[in-house]
Structure formats: C-alpha cells, structure tokens
C-alpha cells in the first residue's frame, strides 16, 4: 500500500479516480483508494517497496506536477503497526501512527518527546513509527504536533489515524 503525504490539503488536490489511474498505469493490480487523503491499496507483484516508491513518486510528479512524498508498506507491516499501538484508545483522543522514513529522523523526533504533557499528548517509539496519542483539538497545538509540522520533516514523515490504517487492511 502507498500512503501519500499532503494530498487534498494545502492546495494539492487529486481526485481519487485520477490517483487510481496512475497506479493502474504503472501496472499495479487490484488498485483501490481509501478515503480522499492519499491512501492506495494495490498489488505490487514482485516489486520491492523501494522500487515501487520511486516509480510512484515519479509518476505523480509527471501527472500532477507536485513533489510527491510516498510511503510504501506491505499489508503485514501496517497490520503490525496497528497491533503494536501501545496506548489505550479513548474517547476524546486521537490515536496516530507517524511513519518515519529515515532512522536518524525517527531518533531525532523520539528525543523531543521527553517533556510532553501526558494529559495532552503521549508518544512512544515503534518499529519505523512513532505512536502518538493526543487530545482532540490539540493535534497542531501540542508540542509534538508543532514539532512534527516543521518543513524539514515533510519528505520523511506521514501520519495516519489508526481508524484509517484499519480501513486499509484487506
């Protein structure tokens, strides 16, 4: 599956039918989009994730004219992320997984979480992700959310709600 960062927000609008066409045109099978926020489930055959990522990003740049940041994971990896969520999901809070493409950035972001107010947000490190439990309404106001929103993390992070990740599982 592919998780696209930043589409249908901030001026980059892509119809899901057009997005599906790009993936189908690349030769991927069983393509379906989930929600309108850049989630594509597909069969890559024997292609590895790095090869798929490069091809998808190039095709998106060519078709839509924007700098695409794509995170490609197989179903088992996403299921493992969901299963490993370390916090109890509660009303009034968001349960997120922040996918981080570079280990050094994962280390850097994890190091910024020691002084968070646990009543507002909590962060735990996972395998290639940071799990984030945050009070509703505080996603962009909390200390971690503000830090995560810095431009330098744009190309190497994407965040998904656990409800969305569950919908992506076949």
From TrEMBL:
Gene3D superfamilies: bacterial protein sp0830 like, SP0830-like domains. InterPro entries: DUF1697. Pfam families: DUF1697. It comes from the Bacteria. PANTHER family: BLL4334 PROTEIN, DUF1697 DOMAIN-CONTAINING PROTEIN. This is Pyridoxamine 5-phosphate oxidase. It comes from Rhodococcus ruber BKS 20-38.
């Amino acid at each position: 599956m592919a998780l696209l960062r930043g589409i249908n927000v901030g001026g980059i609008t892509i119809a899901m039918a057009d997005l599906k066409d790009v993936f189908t045109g690349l030769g991927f099978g069983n393509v379906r989009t989930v929600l309108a926020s850049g989630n594509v489930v597909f069969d890559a055959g024997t292609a590895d994730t790095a090869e798929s990522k490069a091809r998808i990003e190039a095709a998106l740049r060519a078709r839509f004219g924007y700098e695409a940041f794509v995170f490609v994971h197989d179903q088992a990896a996403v299921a493992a992320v969901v299963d490993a969520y370390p916090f109890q999901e509660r009303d009034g809070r968001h349960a997120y997984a922040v996918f981080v493409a570079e280990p050094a950035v994962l280390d850097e972001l994890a190091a910024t979480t020691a002084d968070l107010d646990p009543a507002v947000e909590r962060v735990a490190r996972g395998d290639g992700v940071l799990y984030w439990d945050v009070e509703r309404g505080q996603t962009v106001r909390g200390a971690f959310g503000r830090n995560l929103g810095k431009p330098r993390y744009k190309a190497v992070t994407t965040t998904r709600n656990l409800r969305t990740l569950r919908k992506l599982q076949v």
